[in-house]
Amino acid sequence: MAQDFAATNDAQLIQNVRSGLGRESLFGDSGRINVSSCKSVVTLHGVVRREEDRRGIESLVREIPSVQGVENKLKVRTVPVR
Prior knowledge:
The protein is α+β, with helices and mostly antiparallel strands and 82 residues long. Helices cover 41% and strands 26% of the residues. It has 2 helices and 3 strands, in the order H-E-E-H-E. The protein has helices at 2-23, 51-62, and strands at 34-38, 41-48, 69-76. Strands 1-2-3 form a 3-stranded mixed beta sheet. Strand 2, helix 2 and strand 3 (69-76) form a beta-alpha-beta unit. The longest helix is centred in the N-terminal third of the chain and has 22 residues, at 2-23. The chain is elongated.
């Protein structure tokens, strides 16, 4: 029973994180960020434009109620040199 409760909480937490990222227009492509959660630890995957975006998104997610930790696996988009 406790496992079902944790899964429900993680599912709601993912929705809260996605909602928070969707409202934050500073990060542009935040809709392309994959969000998962296990036992209230949120994992972020995806590609962002700048290191500042990577850090800012992590900071924003840490401020969301019930987030116990963040695994930031976001990568900064590298532009090929011509």
